[in-house]
UniProtKB/TrEMBL annotation:
PANTHER family: INTERFERON-INDUCED PROTEIN 44, VWFA DOMAIN-CONTAINING PROTEIN-RELATED. Residues 2-166 form the TLDc domain. This is Interferon-induced protein 44-like. One of its GO terms (biological process) is immune response. GO terms for molecular function: GTP binding. It comes from the Eukaryota. CDD domains: Ras_like_GTPase. The lineage of its organism: Eukaryota, Metazoa, Chordata, Craniata, Vertebrata. Belongs to the IFI44 family. InterPro entries: GTP-bd, P-loop_NTPase, TLDc_dom.
Length: 462
């Protein structure tokens, strides 16, 4: 998935947050990518709630406007007592950033004119004449400032970004999911998982596959589950960040409890990341072959060459053991609002085909520590964070997956040692996968005395 990135430096980002309070910024519009036009701005920024503009110029200023109200091209003067203009100037040579915050005048509450033009704050009009520039009208509207202090009298814009300002809210008085955070609970979950036996006698272990965009944390999730059962941090699957999927092979991982210990009755399958373009990333039809159990471990996936029945890694006849019993969609919590329509459409098409095969699905939201400072501070806040609950709802709605199937996790990404709370979230996810695999088995009409069950052979292919 191509990701549009912010031009704010870490320091500028921090200063913006200090002007806004306990919030998180989500980039909605970046003019160098989407266009320096009012139309492109409104396409991305209308009806997004609170936003902040970051306009950049060659004189080293980042300046803009914050409003708590929607842009909607209503033609009205919008009142907003919370609105302000600001400027951050990186103090050339002397170091340190200078910040200016301009509130509305005491007698004026009209913050901006909600027109079809670029954002018009009276004294500052961005994307003036549909170009990369700002018009400064000293004395007009409710904001008063010295143009030199605002932007160093440089009206040409090198970049123009708009962020949605998302309040992180506080903590819910009661968590929306009850998790017991004790060491006993950790042990209990471990024991339940290790003693799990599939409902069907011919199957030894449940098989779950991790499916999600590039960099969502699929391989790291497997590494974390593996580490937890091994008792120390391991990194069997290669993880990391690159423009394209780091994982290119289909892998089926058997997990052991302790070095050389018992085999955990859950096989985790790792796949190549999904990309929004049809011809890039993991192919949807390849994924269906994987779900049906046709693809062998270490199959080299290739977006431009879909899996073919004659390929060496293709297994013609499959049994219930080879098939996928639970599909786990993996999404980076930080990127929930950045999922493009194309990516959501791809997920919808996968979901449709998966439903058709009758495979249960759950949604794993990773990187909760990166997404919410309250969860980073104390992982036990994960189901109490208003922000994370909102993200879970957003994702559950766009995927059409019930909230009860949405699980939040933090994987071992930089730790050297295991941690009880991280383990409890990981184990809770693993337990859910086993429960859902059982629903799959219950739905199969299986002749239990038969060794081989040709699961999908009589079914309509996708
Ligand atoms: N902070 C934090 N970082 C994480 C977490 N999970 C994964 N990461 C980081 O996210 C990056 C991508 O993780 P991967 O596991 O390689 O992602 P993937 O989904 O396998 O990506 P592809 O194989 O490229 O499709 C890595 O740098 C991980 O360290 C998490 O829960 N918290
Ligand atoms: Mg991977």
């Amino acid at each position: 998935m191509s990701v549009v990135t912010s031009s704010l430096s870490e320091g500028q980002h921090r200063l913006l947050l200090s002007l806004l309070g306990h919030v998180r910024l989500h980039l909605l519009h970046k003019a160098s990518v989407h266009g320096f036009s009012a139309l492109a701005f409104h396409n991305h920024c209308d009806r997004q709630g609170a936003t902040i503009i970051a306009a950049y110029n060659a004189a080293g200023f980042v300046f803009g406007a914050h409003t708590s109200q929607d842009y909607a091209q209503s033609g009205a003067d919008v009142c907003d007592e919370k609105a302000f203009l600001y400027s951050i100037h990186t103090g050339g040579g002397r170091g340190g950033d200078k910040t200016l915050r301009v509130a509305l005048g005491i007698h004026t509450a009209c913050a901006f004119k909600d027109k079809a033009t670029g954002p018009d704050y009276g004294a500052l009009v961005f994307l003036h004449e549909d170009a990369a520039k700002v018009q400064t009208n000293p004395g007009e509207g409710g904001f008063t400032f010295e143009p030199a202090q605002m932007h160093g009298d440089d009206a040409a814009l090198t970049e123009f970004e708009v962020y949605r300002v998302e309040g992180l809210g506080d903590l819910l008085a009661k968590p929306w999911r009850n998790i017991r955070w004790s060491a006993e609970r950790r042990q209990q979950l471990m024991k339940t998982i290790l003693s799990y036996k599939p409902e069907v006698q011919t199957v030894q272990r449940a098989r779950a596959v991790l499916v999600g965009p590039v960099g969502a944390g699929k391989s790291t999730f497997f590494n974390s589950i593996n580490s937890m059962f091994r008792g120390n941090i391991t990194s069997q699957a290669i993880a990391g960040t690159a423009g394209k999927s780091v994982t290119t092979q289909f892998r089926t991982y058997t997990i052991k409890a302790g070095k050389g210990g018992a085999v955990v009755p859950l096989i985790l399958c790792d796949t190549m990341g999904l990309e929004e373009n049809a011809e890039a990333g993991l192919d949807v039809e390849d994924l269906i072959h994987i779900f049906k159990g046709h693809v062998k471990d270490r199959y080299q996936l290739n977006p431009s060459t879909p899996i073919h029945q004659d390929a060496p890694g293709f297994q013609e006849r499959t049994t219930l053991s080879d098939a996928i019993h639970c599909v786990v969609y993996v999404v980076d919590t930080c990127k929930v609002s950045l999922l493009s329509q194309k990516m959501l459409d791809k997920f919808a098409s996968i979901r449709k085909k998966t439903n058709h095969l009758g495979v249960p699905q759950i949604l794993l939201m990773t990187k909760v520590d990166e997404a919410c400072p309250l969860a980073a501070e104390d992982l036990q806040n994960v189901y109490r964070s208003v922000y994370l609950q909102r993200k879970a709802r957003e994702l559950s709605e766009s995927f059409g997956i019930p909230m009860s199937c949405v699980l939040l996790v933090k994987s071992y990404s930089e730790e050297l040692e295991l941690h009880k709370d991280v383990d409890i979230l990981l184990l809770t996810a693993a337990e859910k996968m086993l429960n859902y695999a059982d629903s799959f088995f219950e739905n199969q009409v299986v002749a239990e005395d038969r060794e081989e069950v040709d699961l999908y052979s009589s079914k309509v292919t996708t």
